[in-house]
Amino acid sequence: MDTYRTEEEQIDAIKKWWSKNGINTVLTIVVVSALVVGWRGWQSRQLDNEAEASALYQNLFEVHQQLEQQSNEENSATADHLTEQLKENFESSAYARYAALFKAKRDAEKGEFSDAESELNWALARTEGGVLTSEDLPLRDLLQLRIAKVLLAQQKLDEAEAALAKIASPEFQILAMELEGDISLARGNVEEARESYQQALDGLGASGAAEILRIKIDNL
Predict the structure, then answer these.
(1) Per-residue confidence (pLDDT) for residue 1, from 0 to 100
(2) Residue 207 lies in a domain
(3) What SS3 class is residue 56?
(4) Most-buried pick from 46, 76, 79, 84 (CB within 10 A)?
(5) What is the DSSP string of 186-215?
(6) Within a domain: residue 183?
């Protein structure tokens, strides 16, 4: 206040400042307000989308439980519809990828291995996009393992081996080794199959899955 000796000088100074800066100040306030409103709206839409995707996936999960107990056309059609909704409307969500996994499982059980492969590749493409998180890596390797299985079922042995070679997670190494044995056996390489089965068995120790490997080795 020492700078200005009268109220008229203060008012005149304010008028001059406003004439130079007023429009920019108003524009800044408007832009900042719009950004804040836009950000809050985006967050709200994200939460709404997440809730809707979660609800659809929960419905899909329940339908799959019913299909496990008793398969019928109505439940299969419902599962297909829910899967397509998740894939079309929530493509970037993890729910869509797991929905594709469910669909691939049903396709494989019906012997429709080409369709199962397409579903798995769809999910894999959306898992590998961008930077992989610690949660994405196991899912990616699970998808590679299942892709290898459906490729083996189609006798695409080279492609199946290529899919297995991409698996890096330790928790999938034993399953990958067993499947490697299946591929070797499909090629007629009995000793290579035996070696792969034995390595998988050594890694399992005592478990129910170990018994399956022993049966495979005995059958050789």
Answers:
(1) 46
(2) no
(3) helix
(4) 79
(5) HHT-HHHHHHHHHHHHHHH-SSHHHHHHHH
(6) no
Give me the residue label for tokens 């999960």.
61
Task: Write out the residue range of the structural domain in which residue 103 sits.
Answer: 7-168
For the domain that residue 94 is a member of, what is the CATH number? 1.25.40
Residue where the block lists tokens 């809050």: 40
| pLDDT < 50: residue spans in the chain | 1-2, 4, 42
The pLDDT score that the predictor gives to residue 147 is 96
Q: Are 97 and 123 within 8 A, CB to CB? A: yes
Each residue of 124-147: pLDDT tens digit?
A: 998 876 555 666 788 889 999 999
What pLDDT score was predicted for residue 68?
A: 80
pLDDT recorded at residue 185? 93
Are 188 and 162 in contact, with CB atoms under 8 Å apart?
no
Give domain status of residue 182, yes or no.
Answer: no
| 8 Å CB contact between 107 and 113 | yes
pTM as predicted: 0.72
Which phi and psi angles does 131 have, rounded to 5°?
-80, 125
Query: Whose CA is closest to 82, among 111, 102, 107?
Result: 102
Measured CA to CA, the distance from residue 121 to residue 143 in angstroms comes to: 8
95 contacts 53 by C-beta, under 8 angstroms: yes
Question: How many separate domains does the chain show?
Answer: 1
In a domain, 218, yes or no: no
Identity at 198, one-letter amino acid code: Q
